[in-house]
Structure formats: structure tokens, C-alpha cells
Amino acid sequence: MRIHNIPGDPGSTQKRKRVGRGEGSGHGRTSGRGNKGALSRSGARKNSHFEGGQMPLIRRLPKRGFHNPFPKVYTPVNLTVLEKHFDAGAVVDPVALLEKGILHGSETGRVKILGQGDVTKKFHIKAHAFSKSALEKIKSQGGECEVLPC
Questions:
Q1: Distance linking the first and last C-alpha atoms of the chain
Q2: Which end of the chain is more exposed for a tag (fewer CB within 10 A), N or C?
Q3: Contact status, residue 123 vs residue 108, Cβ threshold 8 Å
């Protein structure tokens, strides 16, 4: 037995509705669209959010505040991660973070260094932003912090 010989389940396929083929077909004259009105015309369609004339949901909900369409999104990297993956005197930048597998391809935007953990090594870090605690900890070990342009 081959797969093309296996019959389908009964009722799983139905004949296509052939509209506009005379009154005897049961789908003649108005072709199942009813009489008059916008939806009986060719090219007519309802919007997906149309609610039959009822006040639409989007207009019923209150709108407050401001939504920034262009937010500055940073990928956070903690000092514990840098301490674990980099040697003393290393230059840490977004490219180096990507090579070490700390950042992924989708996170190649802005990088912010956060101050969780302790630093025992001297780093030269290039990032788009630094937290206050991270700056203090890096500089206390003699490291350098360079802010990259956004």
C-alpha cells in the first residue's frame, strides 16, 4: 500500500461552492450575499476591528500618557560577567562581548555596564552607558571607562 492509495476520512473534503451558476444550484442570483448593502457589492470588505456600528474597543479605552516610538534600549551587562570572562588589562567593547558569547546577534545595539559584583582586575571598557556604581568600581581598580556614541 502506498500513501497515495490511502483514502481520506469521509467528510474531510467538501465540494467547492460554485456561486452564480443559476437558481437551480441554490447559489444563484445574489450568490449567497443577500440583498443590497455594502457587503453584497464586489470589492466590499469589513475592517477586522469593525464591531457592527458599536463604539469600537480602541475608542472606548482611555488614552493616557506618552508612548515613545523610538526608545533607547540597552543590553545590560554586569561586572560579575566581565570579571568571569575577561583577563586583566583586556579591552572590553561590544565586539569583544559578542565574540565571548555574552551578547547575541540580536543584542548588538547599545550596551550598559551595571555594577553588580566586584572587580579585582583592571579593564578598559567601552560601552554606551555605565551605572554610577559600575564607574566607581572600575575606576577604583585603575580601569578606564569610555562612553561610546549612541
A1: 65
A2: N
A3: no
What proportion of the chain, given as a percentage, has pLDDT over 70? 99
Strand pairing partners for 144? Answer: 124
Residue 108 pLDDT > 70, yes or no?
A: no
Supply the pTM of this predicted model: 0.58
Buried b / exposed e across 31-52, counting CB within 10 Å, b at 16+? eeeeeeeeeeeeeeeeeeeeee
Cell of 58: 480602541
CB atoms within 10 A of CB 131: 16
Instruction: Inform me whether the pLDDT recorded for 79 exceeds 90.
Output: yes
CATH number of 74-147: 3.100.10.10
Among left, alpha and beta (phi > 0; psi -120 to 50; other), residue 65 is left
Asked whether the beta carbons of 4 and 11 are under 8 A apart, the reply is no
Supply angle C-alpha 63, 66, 68, rounded to 5: 130
Q: 113 in helix, strand or coil?
A: strand
Give yes or no for a contact between 119 and 141, defined as CB atoms under 8 angstroms apart. Answer: yes
